[in-house]
Design brief:
Low-confidence stretches: none
Number of strands: 5
Order of helices and strands: HHHHHHHHEHHEEHEHE
Radius of gyration: 36 Å
Structural class: alpha+beta
Helix content: 55-70%
């Protein structure tokens, strides 16, 4: 039963941690946990060193403050406000009290004050962060000045307790800062990788068709306008679509019809030579565009027709009886009556229609 209860607590903690979907949230909870643990250890050593009831109560106050702010943050999701409140309470209230109760400069309290001022840098809001840091800095400096002007306010401790307290404080602060900074840097690196992945995905979707992975229509238009048009004597545009794809969908299902389109797209992608400037795109529905790089119209037509033959040889294990063909047209980009990409697409679309009406499974050119 104890093991099951322990596992349940771990699972709840993991589920809670997964909900911290921003860098600010995860850093807040990490720092709050570090502050709580540091305050807890400090309380234990304060009691062990017998530095007095007030010192022990003030140390325990750090644990209480951390827990209360954690509850408020969980209930309200006011992460940044709770974080700023943590910095204010520690620097302007708890640590000044601990400074006077635990021996002042002869204790490890200056290290804690420095650590909390460092934590101010992790606040999310830039303006509030600088304001919090300035107020906390003034509070710490005033604490130091008051202890110097009125040394009678500081409870003195023995030299042995001073060395022990300074050593323990140094270890706690060093471990706390190391853990927080290491986690923050690691969390930032993870956040950066997520953003880079998202940017890559958005860039892919801005250029590619989501189903086939070929370039999409907007990218094709830009490609024709910018890349092809500057060297149009070297390029030919082939437009084709899949013959009777609706019958395939009706007979074998749309899922299989999509698989047919993806198979043809994969074949087209393997055929294109991007290094030579070729471009394969899904123009819409079952229509595709293949921008071919060739030295002559004969060479371009031969390449287009070889692709048509390769499509007709495609087969699928689940329906081996299915055979598909394509019909299309091909036009040169440097024709005498071609003034822009719109004319190219219009001409090749007419040739595609001609191939459809004259028997399908063929590639038509202007002279044919």
């Amino acid at each position: 039963m104890e093991k099951e209860g322990y596992c349940m607590i771990i699972e709840r903690w993991k589920a809670f941690w997964k909900k911290q979907d921003t860098l600010e949230k995860s850093i807040f909870w990490m720092i709050l946990a570090a502050v709580f643990l540091s305050a807890l250890v400090s309380t234990i050593f304060t009691i062990a060193e017998q530095q007095g009831v007030y010192a022990s109560i003030a140390s325990a106050g750090g644990c209480v403050v951390s827990l209360l702010l954690g509850i408020v943050a969980r209930k309200t999701s006011m992460i940044n406000q709770c974080y700023l409140a943590l910095c204010y309470l520690l620097c302007c209230f708890l640590f000044p009290l601990l400074f006077f109760f635990c021996g002042g400069f002869k204790s490890g309290m200056p290290l804690y004050c420095f650590a909390v001022l460092t934590l101010c840098a992790f606040a999310h809001s830039s303006r509030a962060k600088w304001m919090t840091f300035s107020i906390c800095l003034v509070a710490v400096v005033l604490t130091f000045i008051i202890s110097w002007l009125h040394p009678e306010y500081v409870l003195q401790i023995s030299d042995e307790a001073m060395v022990l307290d300074a050593s323990v404080s140094f270890v706690i602060v060093a471990i706390g800062i190391f853990a927080v900074v290491s986690y923050a840097l690691n969390a930032y690196d993870e956040e950066r990788k997520k953003r880079e992945k998202l940017v890559t995905q958005l860039d892919f979707l801005s250029k590619r068709d989501s189903m086939t992975g070929l370039y999409n229509r907007p990218y094709l238009i830009r490609y024709l306008e910018n890349m092809v048009w500057m060297r149009r004597e070297q390029f030919f545009v082939m437009m084709f679509d899949v013959d009777d794809i609706r019958q395939v969908n009706n007979s074998f299902g749309h899922a299989f019809g999509d698989k047919v389109l993806m198979s043809i797209a994969g074949l087209l992608k393997r055929t294109e030579d991007e290094e030579a400037g070729e471009c394969a795109a899904r123009y819409g529905g079952e229509e595709f565009i293949y921008v071919i790089h060739a030295a002559s119209e004969i060479e371009a037509y031969a390449k287009a027709d070889r692709f048509r033959e390769r499509v007709s040889n495609l087969s699928w294990e689940e329906f081996p009886q299915v055979r598909v063909t394509i019909s299309g047209g091909i036009v040169p980009c440097h024709g005498e009556d071609v003034y822009d990409h719109k004319q190219i697409l219009s001409q090749v679309d007419d040739l595609l229609y001609r191939a459809k009406t004259r028997g399908k499974n063929q590639i038509r050119n202007i002279s044919g």
